[in-house]
TrEMBL record:
Domain named GST N-terminal: residues: 10-89
Catalytic activity: RX + glutathione = an S-substituted glutathione + a halide anion + H(+)
Protein name: glutathione transferase
Molecular functions per Gene Ontology: glutathione transferase activity
E.C. numbers: 2.5.1.18
Transmembrane helix recorded as keyword: no
PROSITE patterns assigned to the protein according to its UniProt record, in alphabetical order: GST_CTER, GST_NTER
Keywords, in A-Z order: Transferase
């Protein structure tokens, strides 16, 4: 399976799994920058030698290989892509140091608060557990409504006129957030509660380079059903 593959063997390669929001953000960053790369699907139940050699500390995806040199951890990868290819595509991080700090704060908030809050939606044993977790996700996303107002300056994206770091980091979760609504029956991105965020989600998901890699909700639901069955979860 390939990303935007060049005529010759590209200098960039991504090791990942299709369902991972962290892999999605790395691929979206490459796509938005207009960079050719090869995407290699791995299997976390039987990790490839290339993955284990490229990320021997954690053995996790994504890994970006740039001329054979590995870059690990998704947010590190996104910033690396922006810094290593400044002349390609839009800048994902603003030039102003304060704006960069604000963007990094909200990108960290995705991983430090949204992700752990969402995990019980995915792993919860009972429907009550999953619904309770989904409602906590709603509370976290309400903070991103205020963040969007602060970061966007009234424009289309957290990054302003073009998608930036926060768009990419949060946007990697859009497929799973939408699947969560079906799994739990709770509207986690609710236009009534977070109208700015809901409109942003539709705009971001429709971008070239984004819509190709955000997984279909039905595919995620089927994947989650199989995964839960393997773990003995109802």
């Amino acid at each position: 399976m390939a990303g935007r593959v060049a005529d010759k063997d590209p200098e960039l390669k991504v090791l990942g799994v299709w369902s991972s929001p962290f892999v999605i953000r790395a691929r979206v960053a490459l796509n938005l920058k207009g960079l050719a790369y090869r995407y290699v699907e791995d299997n976390l139940d039987s990790k490839s030698e290339l993955l284990l050699a490229s990320n021997p500390v954690h053995g996790k995806v994504p890994v970006l290989l740039h001329d054979g040199r590995p870059v690990c951890e998704s947010r590190v990868i996104v910033e690396y892509i922006d810094e290593a290819f400044p002349a390609s595509g839009p800048c994902l991080l603003p030039a102003d140091p304060y704006r960069r700090a604000v963007d990094r704060f909200w990108a960290s908030y995705v991983d430090d608060k949204l992700f752990p809050t969402w995990i019980p939606v995915y792993n919860g044993r009972t429907s009550e557990d999953r619904v309770a977790a989904a409602r906590q996700v709603v509370a976290v996303l309400e903070k991103f409504e205020r963040a969007f107002d602060e970061c966007s300056g009234g424009k289309a994206f957290f990054g302003g006129d073009a998608a930036g770091l926060v768009d990419v980091v949060l946007g990697g979760f859009l497929g799973w957030l939408r699947a969560s609504e079906v799994m739990c029956g709770v509207r986690v991105i609710d236009p009534a509660k977070t109208p700015l965020l809901a409109a942003w989600a539709d705009r971001f998901a429709a971008l070239d380079g984004v819509r190709e890699v955000i997984p279909d909700v039905q595919r995620l639901l089927e994947y989650n059903k199989i995964r839960r069955a393997r773990r003995g979860l109802p």
